[in-house]
Amino acid sequence: MRDEVRALPALTGTFVVMRRELRALLQDRRSVTMMLIFGLVLPIVIANGAIGARGRPDIVLVIMTEVLVFPYIAGLQAALTAFVGEREHGTLGPLLATPLSNVSIFAGKLLGAAYVPSLATSAIGFTAFLLFLRGKAADPFTIVSHGVLLETVVLSLVAGFAMVVLGLLFGSKAKSVRGAQAITAVVVFPVIFGVQALAFVVVRESAWIAWSIMLGFAVAIVVSVGLSARIWNREEALVSSG
Amino acid sequence: MIKLENLVRTFGTSRAVDDLSMQVLDGSIVALLGPNGAGKTTTVRMAAGLIGITQGGAWIDDVDVVKDPARARARAGLLMGEANLYDNMTLQGYLSFFGEAYGLTPATARRRAGDLAAEVGLTDRLTRKIESFSKGMKQRVGLARALVNDPPALFLDEPTSGLDVEAAIEFRERIREFRHERRSIVLCTHVLAEAEELADDVVVIQRGKIVAHGSPAQLKRSSQGDRFRIRLAKPLKKYEAAFKGLSVEDVRFDNGTIEFRTKDAAGTNPEIVRRLVAAGADVIAVDEVDRTLQEAYVDIVRSARDAG
Fold first, then answer.
1. Do the Cβ atoms of A2 and B149 come closer than 8 Å?
2. Distance of CA B231 to the CA centre of its chain
3. For B103, which of A5, A28, A101 is closest by C-beta distance?
4. Each residue of A164-178: pLDDT tens digit?
5. Mean pLDDT comparison of A134-138, A178-182, A184-188, B43-47, highest-scoring range
6. Which stretch of DSSP H or E encloses residue A171?
7. In the predicted model, what is the mean pLDDT of residues B195-220?
8. Backbone angles phi, psi at A98, to 5 degrees
9. pTM of the full predicted structure?
10. Which of the residues A112, A118, A237, B250 could staple to A75 if both were Cys, CB 3.0 to 4.6 A apart?
11. Please, which residues have CB within 8 angstroms of residue A162's CB and are 6 or more apart in sequence?
12. β-pairing, B2-11 with B14-24?
């Protein structure tokens, strides 16, 4: 047995942690309920509201960003539970005692608890939204160009990714999940309103503004991931948990 | 074998661990004792490759913890206080996950989970969620997790804290068995009786430095001398005179029993008895008083504190 034990390569380690996080998420009723609400119920309700916005592609796109970005709020909550919650309950310690690298633990948790389920929920929600509006007067495929639609989708996804990692960064110093949730409100609302405002920019076909902002978000993601990974490394996590 | 050489760890300007050296041989248990904040947990975390070492070196068998902390972690098993488990997982899923985190294939990890569940007596609970387990069971799961990589080095920090008497006895029994499995064990505990019962060697640290090191028997024979008890047939009024001018300390008299401490029993005790008899006392017995490790520990820690 001893001979079979080894330090896993970063990618394999990330996959092991990600799989556990996904399983834990799917076993948690509250998380599944949130995913169902954000992935099915909310998109239909929102799409129903969008029918009234016929002839107003900007409004339809703003509504569409909600469908795309809202699942990341749940993703951020899951990420906070996976990081701050585990530190709060002491369950992070045993994981840090394994040969898994800091990168594997951080990336595995971020992907498994936040990004993969958020992306999946967002995709399901978006599909439900489009199917509901298909053939109707507010069908995004007919009232805006495919380019603008793609820009809005990409912008929303990047914004969602940025929201999660920025929230994780802001919430990192909190001692409890509740504390972290309160702190991350500082990030969530500006990002949501910001994305909605940007949808107006996109629909007016100011592509360079949209792509510049997307680039800004991408830089924010890279910087935040770097800073978060530094904060959530083995040493810091253990020392701050006492 | 676990070997720590001149370990130093600083946090800002404070030295949490200061020039600490010790060795734990295969099949032996070393108890690491000290008051809260003495540096025990920091020492264990450094030795197991969880946090960096500011200065000095640590080895688990032939693995250099400083140079290859991941490989060192692969050779260490840790149980730090409460088990801190993922309560919403099944025992099988939990142990398999940790098996995979230690690099086992999913199939081997699953098999290992079954073996370990049997080893800690939880086979019938393999498919149950951990949240339904009692505290004692959870601590056994923590132990199974610490053994998932079949580690040659085990670090147990307060492993019996919060367990009821029966569960703690069972747990200690299991720790004793590790000795036969040739594992090197570092045991941090505030239960001095546990350390006395299990440890081959005891290291007492305070403010990050070693203030005493030796077998429990050696530590009980402290530098302040052995303790003796003289029993008299009836109480003596002026017993103090029998001790005058002799190298004795901490003399206590209670209803016909006198207790004192001396570093020179051979030179002092016969003279005390002679003086007592001359003063009219009937001496029934002179016994050496066995100190517990707890008493020795308190003396050591207080002396170290007084010394500054």
1. yes
2. 34
3. A5
4. 888 888 887 788 888
5. B43-47
6. helix A146-171
7. 93
8. -85, 165
9. 0.85
10. A118
11. A191, A217, A218, A220, A221, A224
12. antiparallel
